[in-house]
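Here is the promised in-class demo. Please do not try to memorize the tokens; focus on the logic of going from shape to residues.
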């Protein structure tokens, strides 16, 4: 019997983790952290539902922390086995996981110093050292090449087109008696025509499909996000203001750099100081140039004509805290790109607390903003926002460009689903909030598919 238990990304967009059991073998598909609402983040501290030492393998769809950030804790609590992923994800994890550990340590230290926490002393969820211990366990597999695990389990990665290294994960479960079950996890499904990386790969067959539903009830309406970004940049420069863009350090930041470079080359925006204030983006950006197996035709064309597609004019990458503080002394107009993308933490908080009160500033969100995040609150028109224990007034202009999303919208998900030769026996709608999940489920049922929205911690018999 094969089962799946939904340990996260069930009814929500974060905490991606699914426990697959087959013939007494246990495989964990993704090991993400919960983000957003406090009630969700509290789950990061819950004990793992089975002893981590009883897991045979961990498989990661991509490097984003809501898919990978639980690993250091899993390893600290006794997980000894391998971690399978793609080569680019392996390289990104070497940056992302230690950074996550450092952030948890810094937050605990800040909380203790400023006495924000109700817990005395506040402890980090895990440390940089815990994160470093995960890295030697990572085994990279190329797209399209199956990896044979013990006990009739094979794993194959396909391109998901979401961020560098991102994968659709195919897990084939088989037995000597001829039993065969193909579980496909869409992972975070990217958009068609995104910069840098190729489109999501078509999949023809699955017995069970786990489908991400982030934008299951929406279409990205911005017809040309690059042009809109250009318009916002020009407006900020004319006002001699500051444009603060909270962005994931990996993926969205490089997309923005690519678009800003293109806008400059096209003469669509004047040259302006651009600060990328994120140590992680400093480390990750060169990997986007290095992993040529991940490049689409446009990226290849630029590189072969000798243009660096990710280095706009007057860009400065700031790594150290001192340099980061130096940005505060720079004269507007300028653009600041900094993490975290939902303003849930990280250095962008310092820039937000400085610029949100200023009516000459614009804060631009370019990614999904989960319920409860500061990003969502700002987009919903909050007049003040709490940062580092202080209420910061909001006078800056708040904008969003959904067209920069790294997630497929409703129509793009449908386009990807149309590559299936026949409907999977069952499709689980995951990685979405309530309305998006329900909209996807009813859309799938309307096309004759058997779709289901699993609950958090629910276990389902895959053969039932
Ligand atoms: Zn992602």
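The designed amino acids, position by position:
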């Amino acid at each position: 019997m094969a089962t799946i238990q939904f340990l996260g990304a069930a009814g929500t967009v974060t905490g991606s983790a699914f426990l697959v059991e087959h013939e007494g073998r246990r495989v964990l598909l993704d090991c993400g952290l919960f983000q957003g609402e406090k009630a969700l983040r509290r789950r990061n501290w819950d004990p793992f539902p089975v002893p981590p030492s009883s897991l045979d393998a961990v498989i990661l769809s991509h490097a984003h922390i809501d898919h990978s950030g639980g690993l250091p804790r899993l390893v600290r609590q006794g997980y000894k086995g391998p971690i399978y992923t793609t080569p680019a994800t392996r390289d990104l994890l070497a940056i992302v996981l230690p950074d996550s550990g450092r952030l948890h340590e810094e937050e605990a230290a800040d909380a203790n110093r400023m006495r924000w926490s109700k817990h005395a002393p506040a402890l980090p969820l895990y440390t940089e050292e815990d994160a470093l211990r995960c890295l030697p366990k990572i085994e990279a597999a190329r797209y399209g090449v199956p990896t044979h695990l013990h006990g009739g389990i094979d794993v194959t990665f396909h391109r998901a087109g979401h961020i560098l290294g991102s994968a659709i994960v195919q897990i084939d479960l088989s037995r000597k008696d001829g039993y065969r079950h193909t579980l496909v996890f869409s992972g975070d499904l990217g958009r068609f025509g995104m910069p840098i990386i190729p489109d999501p790969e078509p999949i023809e067959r699955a017995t069970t499909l786990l489908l991400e539903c982030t934008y299951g009830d929406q279409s990205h309406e911005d017809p040309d996000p690059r042009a809109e970004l250009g318009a916002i940049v020009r407006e900020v420069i004319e006002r001699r203001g500051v444009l603060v863009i909270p962005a994931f350090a990996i993926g969205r930041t490089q997309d923005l750099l690519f678009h800003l470079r293109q806008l400059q080359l096209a003469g669509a925006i004047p040259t302006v100081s651009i600060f990328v204030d994120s140590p992680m983006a400093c480390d990750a950006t060169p990997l986007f140039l290095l992993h040529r197996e991940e490049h689409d035709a446009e990226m290849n064309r630029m590189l072969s004509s000798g243009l660096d597609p990710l280095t706009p004019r007057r860009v400065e990458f700031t790594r150290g805290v001192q340099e980061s503080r130096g940005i505060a002394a720079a004269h507007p107009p300028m653009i600041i790109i900094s993490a975290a993308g939902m303003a849930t933490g990280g250095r962008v908080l310092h820039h937000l607390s400085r610029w949100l009160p200023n009516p000459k500033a614009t804060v631009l969100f370019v990614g999904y903003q989960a319920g409860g995040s500061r990003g969502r609150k700002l987009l919903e028109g909050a007049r003040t926002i709490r940062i580092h224990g202080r209420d910061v007034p909001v006078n800056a202009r708040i904008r969003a460009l959904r067209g920069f999303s790294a997630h497929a919208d409703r129509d793009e998900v449908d386009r990807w689903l149309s590559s299936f030769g026949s409907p999977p026996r069952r499709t689980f709608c995951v990685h979405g909030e309530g309305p998006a999940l329900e909209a996807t489920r009813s859309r799938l049922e309307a096309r004759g598919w058997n779709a289901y929205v699993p609950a958090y911690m629910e276990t389902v018999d895959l053969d039932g």
